[in-house]
Amino acid sequence: xxxxxxxxxxxxxxxxxxxxxxxxxxSSALSNMPRRSDFPLFVSQMYVIGVKSLVLIVLSAxxxxxxxxxxxxxxxxxxxxxxxxxVGVAMVLxxxxxxxVTALLFAGRAGSAITAEIGLMNATDQLSSMExxxxxxxxxxxxxxLWAGFFCMPMLALIFSAVGIWSSALVGVDxxxxxxxxxxxxxxxxxxxxxxIGKGTVKSVVFGVIVTWIAVFQGYDSEPTSEGISSAxxxxxxxxxxxxxxxxxxxxLVMYGDF
Length: 259
What we know:
Largest sheet: none
Number of domains: 1
Order of helices and strands: HHHHHHHHH
Number of strands: 0
Distance between the termini: 43 Å
Number of helices: 9
Oligomer: single chain
Strand content: under 5%
Mean pLDDT: 82
Structural class: mainly alpha
């Protein structure tokens, strides 16, 4: 029993130490706002993290929007309320599926790539070499990726929601025969700027901060071996997914809970 408590205590202290290290690294990196000389690095990471994720985001959004249109039409047709399909799809995408699914896809594609890239730099002593030459790795390597992740995630979430709504209209109006005017008019009348688009964007910003933070720290703190990089990449996807789903519950409770 004592041995078990000792192991649990050691693991708890190790996790708290990791959280402390990650917080220090995060605050230090964020203090390095992108300067004019760092702008090419920032733009490069925006391309790697954001633009290269567009194909995955668009394809996933198209499929999910089409499925949502089918599901809502099947359920609402029984009550003669087919014209509310657009409202349901828009609210679900803007409030929940847009930010959450985008964050999960972002963690799997961009987050794992960030971890693997920084982990490889750590394994090949590139980070140590920078420090020896007087170059701060937090400013040169970590900060551009953090800021790029913060900016890319909300834009990707909005693109996801827009493509999902378009694909649902394609299926609902052109295939299932829902009246086009009713589909779009109901959506425009019921979707609110702050309640739906604004709060969904806030969620995506929070998810972008968390996912990028986890990805960068796991790569920076990984063991300098192939097994260490592989484990760090796996931890990035797992920790990011759990963090996104957990935070989504609390953010939804705070934003939409009736207290």
